[in-house]
Structure prediction request, 127 residues.
Amino acid sequence: MAGTTSPRKSTPNAASPKSGRTVGEKGAGTEETGSRWTFLTNHSHVLVVLHDNPDLVLREVAIRVGITERAVQRIIQDLEQDGFIQRERVGRRNHYNVIVDEPLRHPLESHRNIGDLLALITSEDGQ
Prediction:
């Protein structure tokens, strides 16, 4: 029917089964376009946030990326295990060092490294 919405969208407090967010709640940096996919993964989003703010607590990383704190914990575990970040305990907090010389993982991207990706994403003009 034209002009009708799905029941899920008409219930503003219904939680999305995949994201745990309520309908209409946007993740960090997404626009209300009807589509939630982005070109970069949550792993790359976490890397960007940690590179810019290496002393953030995981709760704040989760808020900035738009995912759960538990998801950030799993991503950090992946990144640390595969050598993309190093975690250093500083008092009661962690300091994260992004290893910028590590190559990107996919064969189509492996000629570039993490530093190249970070430079592209964090650069004002993309140069």
The radius of gyration is 17 Å. The CA atoms of residues 76 and 85 lie 8 Å apart.
